[in-house]
Amino acid sequence: MKKFSVFFCVVVFLFSNPVESKAAPLKQQNDGVYIVYMGAAAPSNNGAMRKDQAQLVTSLIKRKRNALVYSYTNGFSGFSARLTAEEARSIAQKPGVVSVFPDPILQLHTTQSWDFLDSFSNKKISTAIRPGSAPDQPSSSGEADIIIGIMDTGIWPESASFNDNGMGPIPNRWKGKCEKGDDFNSSNCNRKIIGARYYPDSDDQGGQLSDSGSARDHNGHGTHVASTAAGSLVDDASYYGLATGTAKGGSPSSRIAMYQVCRSFGCPGSAILKGFDDAIKDGVDVLSLSLGGSGGFKPDFTTDVIALGAFHAVEKGIVVVCSAGNSGPTPSSVVNEAPWIFTVAASTIDRDFQSQVVLGDKTVIKGGGIHFSNLTKTPVYPLATGESVKLDNGTRSVDARDCVPQSLDPAKAKGKIILCETHDTDYGNDDRKEEVKSAGGIGIILIDTEGRFIAPKFDTFPGSIIIENEGNQVYNYINSTRNPVATILPTVTITGNKPAPVVISFSARGPSLASTNILKPDICAPGVDILAAWPTEANLNRPIPGKNPPGYYIISGTSMSCPHTSGIVATVKAQNPKFSASAIRSAIMTTAIQTNNQNAPITTSAESIATPYDIGAGEANPTASIDPGLVYETETADYALFLCATGYNTSQIKLISKTIPKDFQCPDNLTEDAISSINYPSIAIFRPRDGEPPKTVTRTATNVGPEESVYTATIEAMTGIKATVTPNKLVFTKEKKKLTYKMTFTATPSIPQIDIFGSIIWTSGKYRVRSPIVIGTA
Description:
By secondary structure, the protein is α/β, with parallel strands linked by helices. Helices cover 20% and strands 26% of the residues.
């Protein structure tokens, strides 16, 4: 749903640019505000500024009293301020400054979804020999001590999904606060919502620019996301009676800390960095950002605010989960592609909102859509195509077939159900519905095969979306009947729909433009037609006459798949408190599912078999990920090597990170191929050419299962590639908890000129640990 897609603008005006990159065009920036990024904070600074940072800020304030917007002192150093271009250029030359860039404005990217994941993963566990189950409530106090930080539009604290019934005291380690503001005070926080911060901006005269004076959500997106990740159990939740069930988040006993970094016009990068800075200090365990950028542009990690903030959060042990973006299915549209970010694609669940079409010949077509109308169940309403009711004023037939605005003749359309095509992507379903409605039509049928996977909202206007084959059925009926008639039945909720999951078309795809040698996205999770909490503010709800807003809403996007994964992350961390951030990501990736509820390979909404560029390691499995057997731990040094290989020098990296070894140096003559050997749970290499030396990657697996364990490797066959693993058996003991293996890839004369996909699977008598393999062509 484009309205809720989170996209950010990668800035093009840089004052420190160590790598050449194709930057995204600047769509919008916070006028006159620049971010001065100075890398890592001083060790043990207790929130104090670094000396060089303090000197710059003091000098700036002396010149311009209200120039400072935010200072960053906890996880990293720097500040944002109102500067002229010349001032920004001058500051960029100062010692200790990594980069200076304009403040970008980023734009925004349940019940059955968790039931589907739980039942689906449990079904697979029997074949994948996985023990255990994911509890609705924690078996110990561990999960209740997990704190999920949400960076979004705020929160609606009165929602039943944020009740704290049965929750114990707030963890002592929590250092955050519940900030008082407009229509929000400390009593709006409880043992579920333990923190709420907001970030008002101010102009040069000290006036507030923010359109929100508190952490209260006046958009809905943040409330929906927060309840998906960690909402409490709520019986009989629904959207006006649809999708009825028990609403719950992925980790219903975890705590929520909201960081309202987004406003009506977008999410300033300066506020996002301040949110990261505060979250690191406050003590969150997981950060969930349903924010991203326009796909198709190589990121610059000196100006990518999410990548910068996430790097320092991960250094502090925080798992940072981000949406992959809604620019799919275009290749290389994935965003948030830094290897320290857990990047999430979106898929469907097994629930369908059916809005059946009944034709005059008694044919029933199981269309989709959400509407609350009162047409009779008998097909008595005249049925016409958009083209047959077009305006006779030069309107093109193709526009009338698509029912675009100002294409239909009220004299011809009045009282009829109109069949509309959807080829013109400049217009959406609401535009077509409003055109039919304004022309006097009494219902709309939309033909859109891929769009059928998402239920459009028609409100009280009768509507249904159908696939192309069904559209042909309707056309044939209309053309073979003198007086074609039809009706559209009220929406009903259907569960057990097959196939599911399906990767939805809007979900952004790999390969990563940051590097062919890292696979993104990492994982896939439910993101289509997700029911979750919503503000009851009247103007945030689609009106249904005579009914009060239900407090729950159904929306789609990678914004929804991100908090699903954040909830799983929280559960894995609760059950495995000693796991590092990278170990948690590994646990979820290596236990992911690659088959659907028909026991066939997961497909896309275009009906092709999903590849790792679509789903990463696969569909997240909340049960198996608790007990993964083996994990791949990615260290800060791995991320530093990634930065070296993508164009950064040693001095810049040492400014950014204080946790890498003091003797760290970027290797000489390093190429991007070195990225393939960072200790990641997936493997991606640039294709070897026939006759070239083999390419070798290394991985180190850490045993987190029984001390005495033996794993044997199986490699999925890859056309045109000979792959070997050495050793092909890993024998873990009490003394040997970490073991390294090498994979070698050799091209054969039959290697195809396309991307090649495979996997390596390590199995013991109890576990199956899978890493996807991608051999890319570009």
